[in-house]
Design a protein that fits this description.
144 residues; alpha+beta; two-stranded parallel ribbon; two-stranded antiparallel ribbon; 3 helices; globular
């Protein structure tokens, strides 16, 4: 298991839901095909700056417009990625603050605040609800 920082992808101006879906699916499939040799089914967690509750997105732009593509946006992504990858893929969308907080699973009295185009926040889940990427994975503290 390895963790690599991948280059950022600039998002173009996307004005329709299917353009947002196509762009995100291309980013997911390109990243996987470039960085994974896994030939079995895939479980993919993608974080985005939108509130996500049971695969329902807040009606926010640009990601909230994805809601018009289906009642369960995770199923829409799973089907589209599976078709493009030629293998079964399960895509779960997660709010970016929630995803960041999972790195601190088990920490008490903790909130993780993300700063981007807006402020986001997440609370670490119990340590039993997630597993580490690898035994030697560690989070380095940023000192300012």
């Amino acid at each position: 298991t390895r963790l690599e920082q991948l280059p950022s992808i600039l998002i173009p101006a996307l004005d329709q839901a299917n353009h947002v879906l196509d762009f995100m699916v291309q980013a997911i499939t390109t990243t996987i095909s470039t960085n994974s040799e896994n030939t079995q089914s895939l479980r993919i967690y993608a974080s985005l700056s939108n509130y996500v509750n049971d695969c329902q997105l807040a009606n926010d732009t640009p990601y909230g417009r994805l809601n018009i593509l289906g009642a369960n946006i995770c199923d829409v992504f799973s089907k589209t990625v599976s078709q493009q990858m030629g293998k079964q893929a399960k895509v779960m969308l997660v709010h970016d603050g929630t995803a960041a907080a999972k790195a601190y699973a088990g920490a008490s009295n903790t909130a993780v605040i993300t700063v981007g185009t807006a402020l986001g926040m997440g609370f670490p889940p119990s340590a039993q609800s997630v597993c580490p990427l690898s035994d030697d994975f560690a989070i380095k503290q940023l000192v300012i």
